[in-house]
Amino acid sequence: MSHKKLKWIAIEHNEPWQADFVCRMAQYKPEELGFLDETSKDEWTTRRIHGWSKKGRHTQKKQVFIRGRRVSTEALLTLNGIVAGTVVEGSMTRQHSFISLSLL
To answer: Model-level pTM?
Structure first.
């Protein structure tokens, strides 16, 4: 026996469903596809929770405790690059989303 890193496999993984999805997506040309993503950032976004220190000593890092201003962004990526995007101060909501508004 040896100690090894576990490989995580999703319980929800379903080969027939995955094959069906691939078949359905194959009907579209690459030019017809777009991928939407949303992200946000504040002063805590890059906060680390683990660190290194000498044995017997605590790990410390000085950083801000105030979250600061949150900025959220949403963008639509196609083969032509980013074709639409929006940035808002605070959290993204349905009324901020350019995609949601265009689908209403």
So the answer is: 0.52
